Amino acid sequence: MSPASRADRVRIEARLAVAERGAELLGRKRRILEDEVERMRLAADRQRDEFEAAAREADRWLARAAAIDGAEGIARAAPPPTAAAELSWSVTMGVRFPAEAEVVLPEAAPVSGSSALAYATVAHRLAAEAAIRHAASEEAVRRIAAELLTTRQRERAVTHRWVPRLEASLSDLRRRIDDLELEENLRVRWSAERRDGKEQE
What we know:
The protein has about 200 residues and is mostly helical. The protein has one domain: Orthogonal Bundle (Helix Hairpins), CATH 1.10.287.3240. Helix content is about 80%, strand content about 10%. It has a two-stranded antiparallel sheet.
């Protein structure tokens, strides 16, 4: 076997070992992300249900306040539109996503009007808080699901393209090396037989 052939075989075997290890690590990452996406989807569904319930409650109290206080009373009680979202972030498998969210609302001013208007104000604040929590949980699912999709694609590329190509190259190289060794053995045997024939003459 030539030194070049031996070096080629070692090089391809090393690349194949790296590819197989990469496929193993990508498979592990995929399984972790699948679990995380499932957990986050359940949390996002819970947040959606809470938001929808809070929005229905806010609508109910707004309808009551509108019937009692009218549009002008509601307009006077409306706070200035200065709400802001505060997010805390987390990282899983290299993906940064919103882990928790809070809405920062202006201080509630005393409401002049009916008790329905006061309840409507509180219900809308709760609905806004639920909305931002739901939006953050949906964004977390979106980010982790995108990373899961990318990981699956990479794992498939390594498993179904890179590893088979390297295995085929290694198999072809081994076949060529076997042919070279057979050829070399035949040449040595033929040379020995020729030498023995000459010595007998």
